[in-house]
Amino acid sequence: MGIEIERRFLVRGDDWRHAVTGERRLRQGYLAREDGVAVRLRVAGGAARLTIKGRGGVARPEYEYDLPLAEAEEMLTTLCSGRSIAKTRHLVPYEGLTWEVDVFEGPLAGLVIAEIELPSPDHPVGLPSWAGQEITGDARYSNAVLASAKAPPRG
């Protein structure tokens, strides 16, 4: 079984931008979301993946599968209408780990979230100055919920 172990934070300011080592644009939509389980379709960099994520907080089950790009594009359009997001993901190294800083587009413009994937749930994490409020486990900020949002969450 695959396990995703990550913590998520709102981002304050732009101080992270000077350390970016790479970026890519992501489009993703949700085929299903129920009781904390989500089935996501993502297109990025000319490739497509289907991801199934289970319930959890810092650690949760995750399974990923490659998809043909043309089929994924069609599914994003026909099956994920009203349940999709677009964002640019920036890679930012900090204290030996690489943070992923997502800058959202469209109705979520202005929302910036940083994620850090960890080797274990108890792995120590040094927080950069731009890491604001922790939102790990806050359902309002899950990408599955944001995909249906008409504006960023408040508070």
UniProtKB/TrEMBL annotation:
It holds the Pfam family CYTH. InterPro entries: CYTH-like_dom_sf, CYTH_domain, NeuTTM/CthTTM-like. Residues 2-148 form the CYTH domain. SMART domains: CYTH. PANTHER family: SLR0698 PROTEIN. This is CYTH domain-containing protein. It comes from Roseomonas alba. The lineage of its organism: Bacteria, Pseudomonadati, Pseudomonadota, Alphaproteobacteria, Acetobacterales.
